[in-house]
Amino acid sequence: MSAVLQNLIDQPYKHGFVTDIESDTVARGLSEDVIRLISHKKNEPDWLLEFRLQAYRHWLTMTEPAWPNVHYPKIDFQAISYYSAPKPRKKLASMDEVDPELLRTFEKLGVPMHEQAALAGVAVDVIFDSVSVTTTYKKKLADVGVIFCSFSEAVQEHPELVRKYLGTVVPAGDNFYAALNSAVFTDGSFCFIPKGVKCPMELSTYFRINTQESGQFERTLIVAEEGASVSYLEGCTAPQFDTNQLHAAVVELVALDRADIKYSTVQNWYAGDANGVGGIYNFVTKRGLCKGVNSRISWTQVETGSAITWKYPSCVLLGDNSVGEFYSVALTNHKQQADTGTKMVHIGKNTRSTIISKGISAGQSNNSYRGLVKIGPKAEGARNFSQCDSMLIGDRCGANTFPYIQVQNNTAKVEHEATTSKIGEDQLFYFASRGIGNEEAVSMIINGFVKDVFTQLPMEFAVEAGRLLGLKLEGSVG
Amino acid sequence: MEAASTAFRDSLLAGQAAVPAGSLTWVNRLRAAALERANALAVPTVRDEDWRFTDLSPLYRLAFRSADGPLLEAARLAPWIVPEASVRLVFVDGRFAPKLSALPASDGPLFAAPLAVGIERSTAIVEAQLGHLADFQRDLFVALNTAYLQDGATVVARAGSRIAEPVHVLFVSTQKDVAMHPRVLVAAEAGAEVTLVEDFVTLHDGAYCVNAVSEIVVAPNAFVHHVKLQRDSKAAFHVATSAVRIERDGRYRSNSIALGARISRQNLNVVQAGPGAQCHLDGLALIAGRQLADTHSFIDHALPHGTSRQLHKCVAGGGAHAVFNGRVLVRENAQRTDSGQESRNLLLSDKAHVDTKPQLEIFADDVKCSHGATVGQLEAEEVFYLRSRGLDDTAARNLLTYAFAADIVNRIPLPSLAAQLRATVLEQTGAKELAS
Prior knowledge:
- The complex is a heterodimer of chains A (about 475) and B (about 425).
- Chain A is α/β, with parallel strands linked by helices.
- Helix content of chain A is about 25%, strand content about 35%.
- In chain A, strands 4-3-7-9-12-14-17-20-22-24 form a ten-stranded mixed sheet.
- In chain B, helix 7 (about 380-390) packs across helix 8.
- Chain B is globular and about 70 Å long.
């Protein structure tokens, strides 16, 4: 067993490489001037600059949250470069004009853009160090009226939509990192599904952090109008650095009447080496607003990377009969730390939410589930079911559960369950008696453990997520 | 907050007769150290994570005075006498009342005496434990209690003895605007068994403050059954900390019932300091009106093969607010720990609310841990079942509420006390007419 675990823990990071591309990087440090410069470089309207400046002024009054169960050296926010864009070349007319170095990077990541977009039927909005390089499948989406583009493009072409929804779910001063993001965000994705439209394909972006020490401040905004539905995929890998990198993204989802948004994430950023050196700090604010009646927002996440994960994809269930879902697998090993979970805020009548969280900790890692289920005084007949299970692999890791349950309405029904277990010797013995080796047995047990979550992933991602966990288990024969 | 802290301390001081210097230097030193901490610590506010849902500011505004008045007649205690308990220590407004108390023979297996006598007579064990289990470094209320350390109870069950009769420690409040700081120290020596009933009652319905601390040490193979009843007035403030240390194969069982007080806070800290320790914590908060009942429990599994079970129930009616925070920590070498925790909450009205947080922190891999929490109202199906048997809606609801709460009361091992509490629960749940 110990050899199995040792191998499992010692899996090197498979996506560690740096692409050599010239970057247009702003000097380190943060001030109103830097924000004005970012806004100017991106040719933004005045109201957006004002939004940034207000967020920045609010951020100055805030302090870093101390409550998460994570430990890291203090971040020097003046030592971060807040803007980095690949050197602008002439406007690209086709894929052939894309920097071949960049294309090779995607190839290494297993994203053959030419084919994949066509074969998989996926429109990939490629984010490369915060600036969208190319967007495929735009036309097909435009035919049904779906807007799917980079955030800066949306600011230029659909300012009225951006202005209407930006900051309505995560206000500029929501929390320390969200305020920072609101002040300095560089790019991200924007997606708008008009009334009654079912998005004809799964939308997906690949995030990649590339310039050394450049903080990443993505901003994603997805709006589904009445009766619209969309499934959005986000997946990440990152190069192997020695320097800690801060990532503070904000994702906002808005679902109007009867709209349906499914947001899936597979996250495999660089987690630092076996001693916990390097690795990405992932401090993300993700929140969905079920604004309309009968709307539904579903978060699915598979978190395997990052040195520190601090992330609580949440649903605000405002509309009557709206539904919020959260399915999560968080795998930590070496010295990774994850404090992740969800918030379900029930405001409307007959709102329902489901939370399924599976934490796996190995090595010397620390994995915490932190969740809030809040039933407001007007949420008649609200219903919540939460289940968070932890699995411990090794005796030096930790698993914690912090579920906050706040109920202010007596017609609500809230259930929470949590268990902790390990892979038992008897389970492995049972497999062995059936002729199945330890490696395969561990893999099968873990796959069974996370099955409830993986079935929620879209096909493409289920395969990738399975592969990711497989990677971590590869060569773990005892 | 500084101003509130100072005002609260000054008010407490004004309401406290000067604590006479004791004859023993270690006691004086302990008090002095605690007083120093109490002066350094700020009063907790809702900005402190530990007090997020419990706003004590009404307590800080209370002007305290020292207790006075005529002696209590024994007859007035009659409603609270537990016939099973022949050993009884009675405290009136925080002061030991020898005439109302019944102490055991001094050379028997059970030593039960007021704290002052305990300190003198049982010095070794008292000195080793007093002030060591309940940490006053970070808790203002424990620090205040330790600084004002004067009256309280010492209960020692000698090694190997099985004390059949429970020890009843009764705290009676007879006057308003009084702050009391009762202290209880219980030690069950190796292999001993003892039952303690810690009982807080009132003869009036005014505002007063109870700041209680009990320290309980369970030696190897010993067993302590701790029944704590909080029946303070509906205007009172009750802050209590029970600190328990269980050694190898020791067992601790607690039934904690909170019925009274405008704001009550119960801290229950259990450390499993030896392998194979067991604890079983049951709690009930039955509140209505504007009451707030807050229970914070912390079970620290420090060594292997420990077992813990916890069931905490809250019934909140009117505009009441129930808070539960159950922390279970399994330390690195506490392998083979088996821990189960349940928080069950029943909301009877649309103004009542509950904040519950079962919290698991696990650092050992070979463990079995689970927790569960539910919040809801009575099941419609259950109400329907009773209505199909001819009960009207109100009666059916009252009966179900009674059954929910009585489940915890029935775990109390003293039949007369359980019956007494069942009657109270019947009354509070409005199910009284069904009993006849």
